[in-house]
Each structure stands twice: as C-alpha cells, then as structure tokens.
C-alpha cells in the first residue's frame, strides 16, 4: 500500500502541479487582456468541479478554487458556448437579452460585442502568456544560476556509423549543424535527433581549419532517462572537451532575456520541424506524448533531481528547479498547441475571427457546428494517438503490476 501511494505521489503530484500552473497562466493571459478591454467576467477558476474556496470581488468576479487540479478556466459574462463563436442570430438574441436586463449600451461590456481586434487579442493572449512564462523562467535561470557550455569536441567515432561514413575524426570540434551555430554538444543532439534519414551539413574545426562534412543519421531506439525508450536520429560519436574548455556562464539580465527568447524559439522551431516531418512521412510521430507521457516525464524529472544528492534540503531544491524548467517546456507546448487552427482551440477562434473580419459577419452556425465536430475529432484522435505512444513507452501492464506489488 505504501509503495502504491509512493508511486502515485511521484507520478501524479508533479504532473498536476506543473499542469495547473501552466494552464492557470494561460487562462490568466485571457483574463488580463479581457479586463484591460473592460470585458465583463463572471468567474476565474483554478481547477474544475466542486468548489473548495470562493470569493467574489468588487467587480462581481468570482475567484474559485475547485477540487480537481487539471488547470482552470475563465468564464466571460454572456458565454453562449465556451467552445464557439455565436452566429448572427445568436449575437442578436444575446444583445436583446442583455438590453432587456441591463438597459441599452450594456452589451458593450460583453466579449461578443467587442471589436474583432480586441477579441482576437484576448484569444491570443492565452498562448502568448505561456510563451512569456517560459521566457521568464529561462531568463531567471540564465541570469540567476547560469548555464554550462560544453564544446562539441569529438572523443570517439564509432565504426560503421553515420559519423564514420561521413569522415568525422577524433578531436574534430563541431561548430555548425544544418546551418545552426553549435556552441554546446547538446545542440548537436537536438539537430540530429529529429533528422533521421535526412542528410545534415556539418562544419567542424580540424587543426584550425573549417571542414565541411555531410552525415545522414540513422533512426535508433534510445533509452531516455526521463521519457523512456524513444526512436531518434543517431550519429555515432562520443564527446569529451579538453581541460579548460568547459565554461560556466551567468548572463546579465538583458543577455539572459535574449538567450531565453532564443531558447523558446529553438523549442518552437524543433516542434515545427518534427510536425513537418510527420506531415511529409519522414517521422512516425512516436515522440508525441499525451497526459500520461507528461506525467511520466514529470516523474522522471523528479526522480532524477532527487537522486542527485542525499541531502534532503538539496533534494527539495533540485526537484523544484527541475520542475520549474520542465514547466517552461510544457508551457511552450501548450501555447503552441492552442495556436493550431483547429476549432475548439484558440487558433480555431482566430480562424473564425479572420472570416468575420473579411465577410463582416460571424461564421454561420451550421459551419461552426461542422467545424467543431471535425476539430474535436482531430483533437481526440491526436490525444488517442499520443496516449497510445505513452502506453507503449510505459509498458503499462508491467507498470500496473509494479504498483500492486
């Protein structure tokens, strides 16, 4: 029983903590921009389901803490459907209802009667808040703790691998890969991992000379310490910098901000690259993860951080630090996902607003209904596919057997 509770704590608590913070920040973005445009709001809830704590402020906004910590939501006054944009008939009916209850002009305080550009900014503010959260976390880490930079100097070239065939040599230092400047050996791994079967142009420093090499990584099964078994591109080199080459950089605030923006952009770029390769049939999509995968990764981060030391105080600090970094990555993922032009997501709302701006009227109700059904099917399909990937990596039945032991 204690083992079961321990497993639940390690897997569930970090996942819920990260997800709740990230989704709450997302909803806070919607809320703050809506209030800046004086939109009437009924409720801001952290969590779902039955209310644990509740307070109503002087603006009539209910601030609620609910028992199910899976994020949160903002409820604008007059919402007809939390997942839709009302059509012309729906807007007119809402207008009449508001005017009848509060008098002429009162409708101007409601979301659906704000100008399109304001509604669009309110919608996009959620994903932007996720990116801002990630940038803020990275900035604080780069400025407060700093980062180690380990040059990509090759210590081993494994025979018969893509690196050997391309002509890499021991003591080569990789300085460019796929047009990207390489400052740290981990940058090479990021480029190679998502380009299996695709030729990559490298530039290395060899005896002070720039040498161009072309290598085609092969896909191989790798045991990631956090995510579990994953299939990624493999080059076939080992790294070992010379004494004194490893540097530890703590950036001043303005440079830390620039590095944080770059880091966020790199993660978004990697995501786009991977999705593009899935669309062109170059990747199977087995790296996509759903809630189970995020929970597994959160658990892996927690265990890895705790195992780094035996001092309880340092363990707590390490776990907190690792979860904060993990939250930044999850935040970027949620922000990106919500910008996809799929009805029921923020990107779908923006798509409808784009139509409204051109046609000077909302999308017809029938089109919205079909769009949301298709969008929901796509989203559910994506989640089922990602969950299947998660189950494959987790070895579910073995995992459940371990919980019961």
Nutshell version of this structure?
The protein has 405 residues and is an alpha+beta fold.
Which helices and strands, and how do they pair?
Blueprint: H1 2-36, E1 41-56, E2 62-76, H2 88-102, H3 116-144, E3 147-149, E4 154-157, H4 162-166, E5 173-177, E6 180-181, H5 185-193, E7 200-206, E8 209-215, E9 218-224, E10 228-234, E11 237-239, E12 247-249, H6 253-279, H7 291-307, H8 312-339, H9 346-359, H10 365-394, H11 396-404
Antiparallel strand pairs: 1-2, 3-12, 4-11, 5-6, 5-7, 7-8, 9-10
Helix pairs in contact: 1-3, 1-7, 1-8, 3-6, 3-8, 3-9, 6-8, 7-8, 7-10
Written account of the structure:
The protein has 405 residues and is an alpha+beta fold. It has eleven helices and twelve strands. Strands 6-5-7-8 form a four-stranded antiparallel β-sheet. Strands 1-2 form a two-stranded antiparallel sheet. It has a two-stranded antiparallel sheet with strand order 3-12. The radius of gyration is 25 Å and the shape is elongated. The mean pLDDT is 84.
Could you list some keywords that capture this structure?
four-stranded antiparallel beta sheet; 11 helices; two-stranded antiparallel ribbon; 405 residues; 12 strands; alpha+beta
What is the strand tally?
12
Please identify the structural class as seen in this structure.
alpha+beta
Query: Could you give the distance between the termini?
Result: 8 Å
Strand and helix order: HEEHHEEHEEHEEEEEEHHHHHH
Which sequence of strands runs across the widest sheet? 6-5-7-8
**Largest pleated sheet:** 4 strands, antiparallel
Shape: elongated
């Amino acid at each position: 029983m204690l083992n079961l509770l321990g497993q639940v704590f390690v897997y569930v608590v970090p996942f819920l903590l990260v997800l709740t913070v990230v989704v709450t920040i997302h909803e806070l973005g919607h809320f703050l921009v809506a209030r800046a445009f004086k939109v009437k709001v009924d409720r801001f809830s952290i969590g779902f389901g039955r209310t644990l704590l509740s307070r109503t402020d002087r603006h009539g906004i209910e601030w609620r803490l609910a028992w199910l910590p899976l994020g949160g939501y903002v409820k604008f006054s007059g919402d007809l459907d939390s997942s839709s944009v009302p059509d012309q008939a729906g807007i007119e009916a809402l207008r009449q209802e508001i005017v009848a209850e509060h008098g002429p002009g009162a409708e101007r305080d409601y979301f659906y009667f704000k100008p399109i550009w304001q509604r669009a900014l309110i919608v996009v503010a959620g994903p932007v808040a996720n990116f801002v959260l990630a940038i803020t976390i990275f900035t604080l880490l780069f400025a407060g703790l700093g980062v180690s930079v380990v040059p990509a100097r090759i210590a081993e070239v494994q025979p018969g691998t893509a690196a050997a065939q391309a002509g890499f040599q021991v003591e080569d230092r990789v300085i460019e890969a796929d047009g990207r400047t390489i400052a740290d050996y981990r940058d090479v791994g990021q480029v190679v991992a998502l380009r299996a079967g695709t030729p990559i142009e490298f530039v290395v420093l060899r005896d002070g000379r720039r040498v161009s090499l072309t290598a085609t990584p092969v896909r191989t099964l790798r045991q990631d310490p956090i995510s579990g078994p994953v299939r990624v591109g493999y080059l076939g080199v080992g790294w070992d910098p010379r004494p004194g080459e490893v540097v530890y950089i703590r950036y001043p605030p303005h440079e830390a901000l620039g590095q944080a923006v770059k880091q966020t952009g790199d993660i978004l770029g990697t995501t786009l690259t991977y999705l593009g390769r899935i669309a062109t049939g170059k990747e199977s999509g087995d790296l996509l993860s759903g809630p189970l995968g995020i929970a597994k990764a959160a658990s892996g981060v927690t265990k890895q951080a705790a195992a780094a030391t035996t001092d309880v105080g340092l363990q707590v600090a390490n776990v907190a630090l690792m979860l904060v970094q993990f939250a930044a990555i999850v935040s970027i993922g949620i922000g990106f996902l919500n910008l996809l032009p799929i009805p029921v997501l923020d990107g779908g709302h923006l798509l409808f607003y784009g139509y409204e701006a051109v046609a000077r009227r909302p999308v017809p109700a029938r089109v919205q209904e079909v769009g949301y059904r298709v969008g929901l099917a796509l989203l559910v399909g994506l989640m089922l596919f990602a969950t299947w990937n998660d189950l494959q990596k987790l070895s579910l039945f073995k995992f459940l057997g371990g919980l019961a032991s």
